[in-house]
């Protein structure tokens, strides 16, 4: 690997460019994972940044969390016997409770590990 430099005043600054210029869409769970890595796993966080694997990792975690959340919510709805009539009676209470419990599981399994 040969580095080139640009002279800026009395200093030589390396011409560094990123090899991966893809645009990543990082959602809520990807941002939570980044904050967790930064605060609790700084060596892994730095390694992911240096090897340019942070954004692909965050996008993968975000996608996996959303998919897993959907699967868990459907399983909980089926297991608890939530019917359309029950949802119509008090939809916010049942669905919010199921979503919150499923999200706790996903966060523990995929984000904070």
Structure description:
This protein has 4 helices and 2 strands; from the N terminus they run E-E-H-H-H-H. By secondary structure, it is mainly alpha-helical. A two-stranded antiparallel ribbon has the order 1-2. Strand 1 (5-8) and strand 2 form a beta hairpin. Helix 1 packs across helix 2 and helix 1 (28-40) packs across helix 3 (54-80). The chain is elongated and about 75 Å long. The chain starts with a strand and ends with a helix.
Keywords for this structure?
4 helices; 113 residues; elongated; mainly alpha; 68% helix; two-stranded antiparallel ribbon; 7% strand
List the helices and strands and how they pair.
Layout: E1 5-8, E2 11-14, H1 28-40, H2 42-50, H3 54-80, H4 84-111
Antiparallel strand pairs: 1-2
The best one-word shape is elongated
Largest sheet, in brief, is: 2 strands, antiparallel
**Average pLDDT for all residues:** 90
Helix content: 55-70%
| Alpha carbon gyration radius | 21 Å
CA distance, first residue to last residue: 35 Å
Structure summary:
By secondary structure, the protein is mainly alpha-helical. Helices cover 68% and strands 7% of the residues.
